[in-house]
């Protein structure tokens, strides 16, 4: 979870600039992305019979160009998911607290209200049984 304190004053103009916890999530994502890219590609090249230098070079190339971006994106998605889940839990907790109060009775339906305003009797909710001659 986010361990950085949330700012007390909310300024929408600058809120996007430095959200709490994003640096840590991006750093972890980048480190993991670079490591997976480097060892994955380097290992695949070594297993494919390429030389050690070529494997290390290609692993470093992919780690720099692919691992940084992929890891940064995954870190950002993980952070955003955690923020959304925390907000969802807050909404659920607030909803549970508000449900302890009695709910108002349901207002009449629009059709009933229009019928009452026009002075028209509402249709019988249970129609009489129809006898069929046999």
Q: Can you walk through the features of this model?
A:
By secondary structure, this protein is mostly helical. Helices cover 61% and strands 0% of the residues. The chain has a domain of 72 residues. It contains three helices and no strands. Helix 1 packs antiparallel against helix 2. The termini are far apart. The mean pLDDT is 78.
Task: Show the helix and strand layout.
Blueprint: H1 22-47, H2 52-98, H3 110-118
Helix pairs in contact: 1-2
Structural class: mainly alpha
Number of strands: 0
Instruction: Report helical residue fraction.
Output: 55-70%
Average pLDDT, to the nearest integer? 78
Top keywords for this entry?
mainly alpha; single chain; 3 helices; about 0% strand; elongated; about 130 residues
Task: Summarize it.
The protein has about 130 residues and is an all-alpha fold. It is built from three helices and no strands.
